[in-house]
Amino acid sequence: MITRNLDINALRTFETGMALGTFAKASDRVGRSPAAVSAQLKKLEQQAGVALFQKAGRGLALTEAGETLLSYARQILATNDAALAAIHSPQARGKVCLGLQEDLGEWVLTDVLGRFAQAHRGMRVETRVCRNTELMDRVGRGELDLAVVWGDGGAAPWRQTLATLPMVWIGGAGLPAPAAADAPVQLVAFEGSCIFKTAAMHALGQAGLDWDVSFTSSSLNGLLAAVAAGLGTTIRTPIGLPPRVAEVSPPASGLPSLPKVDLTMIAARDDHTPAIAFLADALRTAIEDRLPRIRPAGRRVRSPARG
Q1: Of 226, 225, 221, nearest to 213 (Cα)?
Q2: In this predicted model, what pLDDT tens digit does every residue of 36-89 receive, in sequence order?
Q3: What are the extents of the domains in the chain?
Q4: What confidence score (pLDDT) does residue 195 get?
Q5: Are residues 125 and 98 in contact, defined by beta-carbon separation less than 8 angstroms?
Q6: How many angstroms separate the Cα of 32 from the Cα of each of 38, 238, 273?
Q7: Which residue from 33, 19, 144, 154 is spatially nearest to 73, judged by alpha carbons?
Q8: How many CB atoms lie within 10 A of CB 103?
Q9: pLDDT tens across 92-107, in order?
Q10: What pLDDT is recorded for position 304?
Q11: Sign (positive/negative) of CA torsion 126, 128, 129, 131?
């Protein structure tokens, strides 16, 4: 069998176009003309030996093979950038400040910090795991270089949507599903404002269901412990759930359906240093590799020819 090699410059253009949503923007980012970008993508399809794009209205959508290649492209590019950073900047010093949601903290940090430490031996990552409002405030004040938040990222100078996930009702594993019609729904929720609590209260109000807040906590672990103990139901996404809790089916429980929520990476600046750019790529790859396969069908980008 003849081994084929993928062109790493073409992979970077491919990944950049998908991240930005248009290959016209990718053309500017990688410093190539639209014609050169189209030629790169055609060459990449030839090297892959399969179609990566399919027609979707006036634009293009990734085929299943294109989705697979995109995932690997991020890993290949991150490894390439890590190798170059390691050999050219072995004495780099300083720190990068990262903020994460509690849902992501444990499993993302394991993957990301190890890779960062190998590529930037003289640098350290200071990590803060906290709630949305604090993360966005700290990014706005320049106290965090990079953060992953729920929602659209507010007024952050730089934002990139990583995924759009469903909000789901969460109950204790093995416990009976709450019967929404029999009594007020018992909500287990964060103290103060919360994007999930707001969505739940709105959905319950629209459905004409009564509710009470039965338990509040300042930490996600506190919420999940209360839910596991049967004190009520809470609202999260399917990611990062421990075995002691489980999703509650709206049809079975009488609870209303919930909206979707974006998971967004934000930064204090749009001109990333090499270390921050590497960390952003590592975060994106780690999160997308671990997310459940919940994506909008037919991820679309604009055609390279049309921009």
Answers
A1: 226
A2: 888 999 999 999 999 998 887 777 788 999 999 998 998 898 888 877 776 665
A3: 8-85+296-301, 93-165+261-290, 168-258
A4: 92
A5: yes
A6: 10, 40, 22
A7: 19
A8: 20
A9: 567 889 999 888 877 7
A10: 44
A11: negative
Q: Which amino acid is at 288?
A: E
Alpha carbon dihedral 28, 70, 294, 229, in 10-degree steps, equals -100
And the tokens for 272? 């990333």
Q: Do 11 and 81 contact (CB within 8 A), yes or no? A: no
Please state the pTM of the whole predicted model. 0.66
pLDDT of residue 86: 65
CA distance 280 to 239: 20
CATH number of 93-165+261-290: 3.40.190.10
Same fold, 8-85+296-301 and 168-258: no
168-258 adopts what CATH topology? D-Maltodextrin-Binding Protein; domain 2 (3.40.190)
Identify the pLDDT of residue 122.
Answer: 67
pLDDT < 70 regions, the chain: 1-2, 86-93, 119-122, 177-182, 292-307
Fold of 8-85+296-301: Arc Repressor Mutant, subunit A (1.10.10)
